[in-house]
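Chain A, query sequence.
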Amino acid sequence: MWGDTELDQKVDLGALPDRPAQGRGTNYLIVGSDSRAGLSEQARKDLRTGSAEGRRTDSMMLLHTGANGTTMLSLPRALWVTLPPYVRPETGRNHRAEPDKLNAAFSLGGPDLLVRAVERNTGLRVDHYAEIGFAGFVGVVDAVGGVDLCLDRAVKDEKSGADLPKGCQNLDGSQALAFVRQRKQEALGDLGRTRNQQRFLTALAKKAVTPETLLNPAKALPTLGAGLDTLVVDKDTELRDLVSLFQAMRGVTAGGGRQINVPVSDPALATSKGSAVKWDDRQARKLFAG
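Chain A, predicted structure.
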């Protein structure tokens, strides 16, 4: 009951226009945003989040659950898509449909435009939306006592603040945030980052469901509280829906489903908006249809 009262249900999916038909199973759009809400000035400096206001997408995943199992699909921030027509909230100006990177949808029109862009380009209906900011991510990792991860090489990235040695180690919240944000030294750039994010999510899910965490109120309650602090969901999402989401994520990261990336034909497509990721149309359509 406490958890339900803490949910920030500000996204109204039912009010969105031109939506795909309801499909089989349930689709969750999971977004990690760079919202600085809940972070002090010192925390922003320590975490190297910058001082930008508002929020943008740092990671996006589609989680599908249904009769054929569970699939977790990472969507690169720089994926080249067609944005649907929209009205810019700050100016009230109408914009026609136009090609752009997927993360531009969030910065131009918030969660509403992001959901519409995902639905327009995949043909999938988004049933639930869940977004967590920097502070929530760091808080969850710290609340479970850090996450164990083994690296096959050292990771050093000045922009994100990542400075991790090769080998197995326990990452605290700030180290984990730096790891999942860095991409400069990844050979595949943004695609490499999405793989790191899935890998870390697997390790976090395993840690969160251990008896040491679940059966210890000193860890379980702070973990829930940290997650809810910066969580944004749609109006139809209740705590039981988040439990279903977490159970599905736990299942797929434990090997009970598929973790995949969008099929890509060009990871460095030259566009008017800079380098972007072009998906393989034929393979992507086959994936979404299945």
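Residues 138 and 173 are 4 Å apart (CA to CA). The two ends are 37 Å apart (CA to CA).
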